[in-house]
Amino acid sequence: MNQLRVGMIGYKFMGKAHSNAYRSLPMFFPNALKPEMKAICGRNASAVQEAADQLGWNESITDWRELIQREDIDLIDINAPSDAHKEIAIAAAKAGKHIFCEKPLALTLADAREMLQAAEDAGVRHMVGFNYRFSPAVRLAKKLVDSGRLGQIYHFRAWFLQDWIMDPQFPLVWRLQKEVAGSGSHGDLGAHLIDLAHYLVGDMQEVIGMSETFIKERPIASEMTGLSAKGSGDGPKGKVTVDDATLFLTRFENGALGSFEATRFAAGHRSTNAFEINGSLGSVKFDFERMNELEVYFTSDEEDVQGFRRVLATDPVHDYMEAWWPPGHTIGFEHTFIHEVLELSQAIAEGRQPVPSFEDGVKCQAVLEAVDKSIEERRWVSLSEM
Ligand SMILES: NC(=O)c1ccc[n+]([C@@H]2O[C@H](COP(=O)([O-])OP(=O)(O)OC[C@H]3O[C@@H](n4cnc5c(N)ncnc54)[C@H](O)[C@@H]3O)[C@@H](O)[C@H]2O)c1
């Protein structure tokens, strides 16, 4: 097998990011299993054909069940909103297909566990789309933590701040409806931070959170895609059923303390996704708006030059960078997906589970739900309760 035959469902924001990853992979990582962009699936025949032409897919179809049953497809890639993930993933597993599913894995922890079980029972490979793990600067942070160069980890502090729905007239898109999205900023933005925390620091022991929905009703959307939408302020309104902002604290199993803030109401922050880690021997700071950089501080530096240094993670010594441009030539958001698809294709070729897998998706979902429970019951919730 030297090709990976892909069928993809959903073709807007993430669909485009994944399509670009499949197209770019062979050019920069020629030894990886080559994705063959077989078919793309959407509900509107003419719109999905247009997307197939634009994004480079061989054909378009309108029935995902038909796509899943096709003999000439190895991998099903799910880029639909979260309410569609479970049914498609379980059907794909039963049909013996590998699965790549966007985050958050499911609407609930129970659903996420069912998806993991189905994939394990079927013996297929499964991956969840936590793409920020694949930034070279984040990999450098991971290397510094794992090698002990930051010493004992005391703090993980993370924030994901956006402002795209601050206008009360911004329409009621699917991301603001619990039955479609599962939750708001918590499952959309917070999920990425939780995964980074798991990746960089480890498992969590207990959590306590708070959340708020600042704008409780919005005009019904007439058109929507990704983070944009149309709707009229004069038209009918519907109820917002998810959080606009969620904050929580955690104690990690290794004794570190964590704090998390996810909000869509941070004026001026288009998409600030950042974290700091403080250890006994030093600290790191990462901000996705400057994703090629990691700020690093070591307590062992001579006293008169102590301070954060800015490391540009673009040298061949940094993960993935050998395949890209000469040192100092930066990469962007889309590259995280190319690296993600690289891991997926390598794992399938090597007959191992890709990382992050549905197991990581379940772990993230457990934290999301534990935080919700803590908010509802106004108390610390242990992850062992979940
Ligand atoms: N990893 C990331 O950084 C990241 C970023 C954004 C979104 N996401 C996740 O990706 C998924 C999709 O989000 P998006 O921003 O691409 O959404 P989007 O609104 O831009 O696109 C959704 C696509 O799914 C299709 N779709 C909707 N309902 C469907 C259904 N029932 N069956 C089949 N297709 C359906 C739509 O037609 C559209 O093509 C969500 O789970 C979201 O949380 C991840």
UniProtKB/TrEMBL annotation:
Residues 4-130 form the Gfo/Idh/MocA-like oxidoreductase N-terminal domain. Keywords: Oxidoreductase. Residues 138-284 form the GFO/IDH/MocA-like oxidoreductase domain. The keyword Oxidoreductase applies. Pfam families: GFO_IDH_MocA (PF01408), GFO_IDH_MocA_C3 (PF22725). SUPFAM superfamilies: Glyceraldehyde-3-phosphate dehydrogenase-like, C-terminal domain, NAD(P)-binding Rossmann-fold domains. Transmembrane segments: none annotated. It comes from the Bacteria. PANTHER family: BCDNA.GH03377 (PTHR43818). This is Dehydrogenase. The lineage of its organism: Bacteria, Bacillati, Bacillota, Bacilli, Bacillales.
